[in-house]
Amino acid sequence: MITKRNGSVSGLRRLPASRGTGLLCAAAAAAALLTGCGDDGDDGAAKTGSAEAAPVPSAPAATATGNLTEDQSERKALIPKAKVGYEDALRTAVAAVPKSKPVSIELKGPVDKPTWETEVATADGAAHTVRVDAVTGKADKAQAKKDEDADDKRELADRLRKATVTAQQAAETATGKTKGTVSSIELEDSDAGAPKWSVDVVTTDDWNKTTFDIDATNRKILREHVDKD
User: Fold this and answer.
1) Strand pairing report for 181-189 and 127-133
2) Which pLDDT score is estimated for 228?
3) Nearest-CA neighbor of 131 among 147, 154, 149, 113?
4) What is the arrangement of strands in the sheet containing 143-144, beginning at the earlier edge strand?
5) Among candidates 116, 229, 113, which has minimal Cα distance to 181?
6) DSSP characters for 150-175?
7) Cα dihedral: 154, 159, 161, 166 (round 10)
8) Cys-Cys link to 153, which of 35, 50, 118, 125 (CB 3.0-4.6 A)?
9) What percentage of residues in the chain have a pLDDT greater than 90?
């Protein structure tokens, strides 16, 4: 029977303090163990995943040139800087060496000072280099090629004599096939022994370069190659 004595409940058996404390500690330990097991499982899974899973590749970093290659970027930077076209540059170079004909011309940097590097030669095959400013159109003094020997002169003279198609005509043939800016022209020997003009045309929508090999005797296109690099 339960009775109250002095405001307290009698009839209930009081547990010893040490035993009650022990039970509380055991309960707390059990709870901590259950909680800890769950945490260990989660942490373990995370740790195992981070240690064993292959690293996720990051997206390529954006570049200043976007999707353009290095060569395309160089063309994009250089071509618009040339205020003087290849035709005017060739006329200036030929005028610098009396009775000469064009052999080659190429637009070169740096971007802040674009230059047409040209080579012209007289009928005997004596070659001269002339640098023409691609902005002002002014030419440096013509320089005779020092490394040209007698055989070189004879071969060049023969090439010039056989080339009945001019550099301008070859360029017109190339740009008639691909609209763009002429960045290089050079008179070369073909595999068949006949001379050919190699013409580079840069398209300004994608900054690709197309090289045309054109027969220097009949303007026939021998080869066409698009350089997308």
Assistant:
1) unpaired
2) 82
3) 113
4) 143-144, 127-133, 115-122, 100-108, 181-189, 195-202, 209-215, 221-227
5) 116
6) HHHHHHHHHHHHH--S-HHHHHHHHH
7) -140
8) 125
9) 68
| Cα separation, 192 vs 54, whole angstroms | 57
pTM: 0.71
Question: Both tokens of residue 66?
Answer: 């976007």
Sorted by sequence, the CB contacts under 8 Å of residue 163 that are 6+ apart come out as 187, 195, 197, 216, 217
Tens of pLDDT, residue by residue over 26-73, are 444 444 433 443 444 444 433 434 444 445 444 333 334 468 999 999
Cα–Cα distance measured from residue 212 to residue 175, given in angstroms and rounded to the nearest whole number: 10
Q: What angle do CA 207, 213, 216 make, to 5 degrees?
A: 135
**Cα distances (angstroms) measured from residue 49 to each of 41, 53, 92:** 12, 5, 71
